[in-house]
Amino acid sequence: MKxxxxxVSVATLAIGLFFPAVAHANxxxxxxxxxxxxxxxxAVSADVSDFSANYYNPAGLAxxxxxxxxxxxxxxxxxxxxxxxxxSVDPVRGLVAGIVAPGKLFDIPFAFGLxxxxxxxxxxxxxxxxxxxxxxxxxxxxxxxxYLAANLAVSPWPWLQVGGGLSFMAATEGTLxxxxxxxxxxxxxxxxxxEVDADLTAIRYPxxxxxxxxxxxTAIAVVYRGQFQLDLDLRAKLHGDLAPFTxxxxxxxxxxxxxxxxxxxxxxxxxxxxxxxxxxxxxxWVNWSAYISPVANLAVDxxxxxxQGGWPANITPPTVPTPTKVVPIAMHDRLVPHLGVELExxxxxxxxxxxxxxxxxQKSPISPQTGITNYIDRDRHAFSAGLGVKLLAPLRExxxxxxxxxxxxxxxxxxGMTTKTDPSDLVGDYMAGGHIWNVGFTTTVGF
Amino acid sequence: xxxxxxIVFAALFCAFFDGCATLGNVTPPDDxxxxxxxxxxxxxxxNEVQGVAPFVLDDAHSLYREPTALPLDGLNADGTSPxxxxxxxxxxxxxxxxxxxxxxxxxxxxxxxxxxxxxxxxFPQEVLAADQAWEGDDLAGPSVVSSNGxxxxxxATNGGIGLARSTDGFAFTKxxxxxxxxxxxxxxxxxxxxxxxxxxxPSGEFRMLYNAGFCIGEASSQDGVHxxxxxxxxxxxxxxxxxxxxxxxxDEAVDAGAxxxxxxxxxxxxxxxxxxxxxxxxxxxxxxxxxxxxxxxASSAIGFAARFGDSxxxxxxxxxxxxVNKNEHAPAIFAWQAGELLYVTQNDTPSSGPAxxxxxxxxxxxxxTLPTPxxxxxxx
Lengths: 447, 380
Hints:
The complex is a heterodimer.
Chain A: H1 2-18, H2 27-31, H3 35-39, H4 53-56, E1 68-82, E2 85-86, E3 92-105, E4 108-119, E5 135-136, E6 147-157, E7 160-183, E8 191-213, E9 218-225, E10 228-243, E11 246-261, E12 264-274, E13 277-286, E14 297-303, E15 334-347, E16 351-362, E17 375-376, E18 380-392, E19 401-418, E20 430-446
Parallel strand pairs in A: 5-17, 7-10
Antiparallel strand pairs in A: 1-2, 1-3, 1-20, 3-4, 4-6, 6-7, 7-8, 8-9, 9-12, 10-11, 11-14, 12-13, 13-15, 15-16, 16-18, 18-19, 19-20
Chain B: H1 2-20, E1 42-43, E2 55-57, E3 65-71, E4 86-93, E5 100-107, E6 125-128, E7 140-147, E8 150-157, E9 160-166, E10 173-174, E11 194-200, E12 206-211, E13 216-221, E14 228-230, H2 251-255, E15 266-272, E16 275-276, E17 282-294, E18 297-308, E19 315-322, E20 329-336, E21 339-348, E22 356-364
Antiparallel strand pairs in B: 1-22, 2-22, 3-4, 4-5, 5-6, 7-8, 8-9, 9-10, 11-12, 12-13, 13-14, 15-17, 16-17, 17-18, 18-19, 20-21, 21-22
């Protein structure tokens, strides 16, 4: 058993050393889920048993000792700049919560878990920008959304846990239909009828994981998260009479991908170095090369026949805009290393205290933006730290424990220059970089 | 231990209600995004200009047109003005002689100019009129630039490009003759040089762009008075212009996805505004008027062309940076920290009477809104 542990540990480290590192997004990918996990750089796939297992490794749910309820909050503020000026990228903030309900089925331990990230100023955001407009592609819009996951896990043997489930997101589909008469000479006689039909369609994607305890002090894990895309499909129709001149018909259909999460595979390990020190490492492969450009494909139909005698001199009829040629976004698969350590300097009969630190490095997956597109991104070094306290059987009515964890994470996006090949590019050369602060807390009540 | 219980429940309580405060809203676009400072521009709205938007200077008798902008409070290291105080020099039909002269006015907010339509009783001040035989009767196409306390005003005449200098921006002293005239060695020049635009490069050298037919040429000078033509393509024996019209594209090709060029018959009215990019490269930026014919109808639009380095041909951006189908032409630009204002000549189309040229303003970045305009400036 010991030699297996050593082999797996060395293999895991080798993967991290020999493959280039990474980047990804979505609120949990970037900022973590739960304060203990965020403080440890997200390196917990083999060392998780609370509600955050719903994201990091569903198999970990089966390790829960009793019913657990968790609530928390985090806020991530972006200080991202181009050419030395802040771009005011919206913060990501909201409630995190979850439940772990363990039990036994045919004498086999199993658990059900729910995990939720609920943004506190929107559930989801849609934004369709021209492909030339600069945007922080991995931070600007993709992280502004709700996350909900439900998982089941079992532990057929004490050394093996497996689990899986679904995550849910919402896609948008809508139609705007306007018809009627617009009397240019008599606006009060104009009548327009409009009809709005919008749907939020549920999108589900799978996740699954396994954890193997190689010894009492060593465990490994493997996790798969599926790919998903949030489609944004909007149609608008405007038709009617432009009295007293002519008629008009305008139809627009926009199809785009509001957010895309590539599939991921995580391989991780956890080592209890001493009774009070634990070290973890995760390596996440992210299939960024499958990323779909978020630019809308527009189809426009415009028909305004000239009135009898032609257009008046002071009226210029609109023309059909030239269709956009969407330039594919070029991205590369990445391997993201996560490292974490947890110390337990305080260990008394009724209270335990923890100090945690973590690091992850996300090499930008986006190719240099030398052409007309401006998907801004930079390599990200994320340093995190946290504190935790665990109260054991704090009340007679609460024989379990109460945990309070805090975290702070500083992400540094190294400054880098984007240079354009076309001198007539309307965006031009720019320097980009900055940092992101992420702070939060999580409380867990174990029964 | 009792206190810990209360703290835990208080934290849960706060987190729950904070999380429930979920309302939809419209998020503003990101701020301070990088830009070459050349648009695309949107015309000013009614809340951004006094009078009838997008016009900032409009007079059916004086026919204000062909503006050039002079920042009045110097320039920052990045070439932008530290304030919104700007003087405009432009062509107007003299109320006394009836000939085209060059006038000046200014605004403290880059929009509310002394002598604007609602600034009743005030008029821009005439600073230059034709009084030399080689000039003819009318002046046109002014370009103003400041260097070492001297304001250089270049202008177009029948006899070529003239120069007048001033220290206060009002009293100008002309050069005795034109500083730039026709040259038979430049085969592409089918007309007398006109529409000058002069800027000073970081090296201190004066650089002029001008129109002389259907294309735009370039010349350089160390003192702002004596100019030498530059060849955009030294590999060929001819003296080449830096910018010319493109070939026409058929409707079928456009339907198949080709971009319709904005200039197929003439490029004109260059506005040169070079800068050093954040990457340290000289970007030789030029706005110009592109003329074309679509379905038998002539039209114009404002385009952007540029190059890296201080010599060679310009590369056109394929789209228009300002296009309103109002015979827009003769762009001038004024940049400050918050963005760029484009001053452009375009037709005002009153409900009665014929269209006439006036000076409109447009702004970039288009998603931003300018603050409410100030009162009109106290003097020209």
